[in-house]
Specification:
The complex is a heterodimer. By secondary structure, chain A is mainly beta. Helices cover 4% and strands 47% of the residues of chain A. Chain A is globular, with a radius of gyration of 22 Å. Chain B contains six helices and no strands. The longest helix of chain B is centred in the C-terminal third of the chain and has 25 residues, at 127-151. Chain B is globular and about 65 Å long. Chain B: Keywords: Cytoplasm, Cytoskeleton.
């Protein structure tokens, strides 16, 4: 059963757990990051990190070094480190400003696997790759610029700490080398290439019908890349061939994804529920969803008709107008409840690995515009057949 | 308060501004070539329609359909031919025909349905026929198909 937590009445912009999942960093659609502690079955805010002037767009919590990086529309990023306050003796989170050198909003941030670098995507058609300069005691950035033509919406690190995938509003997903001489050892060759100076382009792939690339992700081995576009498609790239598998979906676009194993991806977006994709180099398919539409949820989340249909074509305003048209009913009938049959009641904006077990990720967490955080078991996949029958217009 | 600065197109001061031509790959064919092809397809479709092969006719006209600038007349011929097909199909057969089309063809069909709906009164455009096809196509290809029509810069 998925664990459901309500964090607030406002959208959750982004979320990130600490290493042992006892604390959670979120931003509730404003310029502050909140650190929450779990008390019973609830997440309760304990510390507020306020340094940004504008909306925080992304947060990442490094599991080993226990540092938090936040980035914002104010074009800044801060690295937060827990330190002992010399006066009170208590632990406080100390911010360090990062010199990003970008002139547009920062959109997405991720620590590298070794946690000695992080990448900040931005609207300045650039990705700032930041590393720590011990001499001056600050974080410096180096910009990946070419050949990005528009806002970068998502980044993801390759396990070798050097390669970086980026999805951009110029309809391209790219793989760059983010090799920093002062930090990185010479990387061993991968399927993406062997000579990798900074800003080498190791791959460039386009969405099938011109959609912005909202999400990118390397597989656990780093040998495969997945990206999801605003044209309701998800593509999986095997660079050797290169082999490109594209799935065009019937539903609304995905905006976030994470690999759970070498042959499995969990992705979510405007359709309000996490979908599971499974496959190999031979081919990929939509395997189902983690949101079981027939499972009993809290009683009030089931809408009046009780039919196991998912999707908004039959509910809400559409049904109101249809009833008015076909039956001459002007008042809202019991069927026209605005509750969705999915657990998330609005777009899911972030899906991240939560727990590891066996061959890969065993649980994922999602957060979205409905202010809800949900932890899902990735093996509880439900086929989509009931939905397909239900998405008809009448 | 002076607010006119909000109306300045800041992109004009950017030397590296993104151009329309960079948003999608241009059609490799010459405009004249595209026009010639559209005319040939129109003839082929007439033949297929006389044999009542609607799915074949749709595939013929929608496969590799003209897109981008400078091919307006080819686009018009394609739209006119497509409308002939749509108007001459029995409404009971539509679902079966749509299911037999490839996903590419379904996406292109949706683009033309929207193009037709955007030109009321043009040629043989009939709102009720287009809406009927739109409903059936959405049942088969889902709202994802509509999303692709909206995002795709390769406008037909």
């Amino acid at each position: 059963m998925p664990e459901i937590f309500s964090l607030g009445q406002t959208p959750v912009t982004c979320h990130s757990f600490n290493a042992d999942r006892t604390q959670l960093a979120v931003s509730l659609n404003n310029n502050e990051a909140l650190i929450m502690n779990k008390q019973g079955n609830e997440w309760v805010p304990s510390i507020t990190l306020s340094e940004h002037d504008k909306l925080i767009t992304s947060i990442d919590w490094a599991p080993n070094s226990n540092r938090i990086v936040t980035c914002s529309q104010d074009r800044n990023a801060y690295v937060w480190q827990e330190q002992t306050d010399p006066e009170t003796g208590g632990l406080v989170w100390k911010p360090t400003l990062v010199l990003l050198r970008i002139n547009r909003a920062a959109t997405h941030v991720r620590w590298s696997p070794k946690e000695d670098k992080f990448a900040v995507a931005s609207g300045a058609r650039a990705i700032a790759v930041c590393s720590f300069d011990a001499e001056n005691n600050w974080w410096v950035s180096k910009l990946l610029k070419k050949p990005i033509r528009s806002t970068v919406l998502a980044v993801d690190w390759h396990p070798n700490n050097v390669l970086l995938a980026a999805g951009s509003a110029d309809m391209k997903a790219r793989v760059f080398s983010a090799y920093i001489k002062e930090v990185d050892e010479r990387p061993s060759p991968t399927v993406w290439g062997s000579k990798l100076p900074f800003n080498t382009i190791c791959g460039e792939y386009t969405t099938p019908a011109g959609g912005w690339v909202h999400a990118v992700g390397f597989s656990p081995s780093g040998d495969v890349l997945a990206f999801a576009g605003h044209d309701s498609s998800i593509s999986i790239v095997y660079p050797g061939g290169p082999v490109l598998h594209t799935i065009r979906m019937q539903t609304l676009p995905l905006i976030t994804l994470t690999w759970t194993a070498e042959d499995s991806i969990v992705a979510a977006g405007h359709d309000c529920r996490p979908l599971v994709f499974a496959g190999s180099e031979a081919g990929w398919r939509e395997a189902g969803t983690l949101d079981d539409p027939s499972a009993a949820k809290s009683p009030d989340s089931r809408f009046g008709g009780g039919s196991p249909t998912v999707g908004r074509l039959k509910t809400g305003a559409f049904a109101t107008f249809r009833d008015a048209d076909t039956r001459g009913q002007s008042s809202a009938s019991p069927v026209t409840d605005t509750k969705l049959t999915t657990i998330h009641q609005n777009t899911i904006t972030s899906v991240r690995p939560y727990a590891y077990g066996g061959a890969g990720v065993s649980q994922v967490s999602t957060s979205g515009v409905d202010g809800t955080l949900v932890v899902w078991d990735v093996n509880a996949v439900v086929a989509l057949t009931s939905r397909l029958g239900g998405s008809h217009l009448r | 308060m002076e607010v006119n600065f909000r109306k300045i197109n800041v992109d004009q001061y950017d030397e590296d501004v993104i151009q329309e031509s960079e948003l999608y790959e241009a059609d490799p064919r010459e405009p004249a070539e595209v026009l010639e092809e559209a005319k040939q397809r129109q003839v082929a479709v007439r033949g297929l329609l006389s044999k009542n092969d609607i799915a074949g006719a749709l595939t013929t006209i929608l496969d590799n359909a003209p897109y981008g600038p400078n091919v307006e007349s080819a686009k018009e011929i394609t739209l006119q031919t497509l409308l002939t097909i749509l108007n001459s199909t029995k409404s009971t057969e539509i679902s079966v025909i749509i299911k037999s089309l490839s996903m590419d063809t379904q996406d292109t069909l949706m683009k033309y349905i929207y193009k037709g709906m955007g030109m009321p009164g043009w040629g043989d455009v009939s709102g009720s026929v287009l809406l009927g096809w739109h409903e059936k196509l959405t049942e088969v290809a889902g709202v994802g198909c509509i999303v692709r029509t909206m995002t795709d810069r390769r406008i037909v």
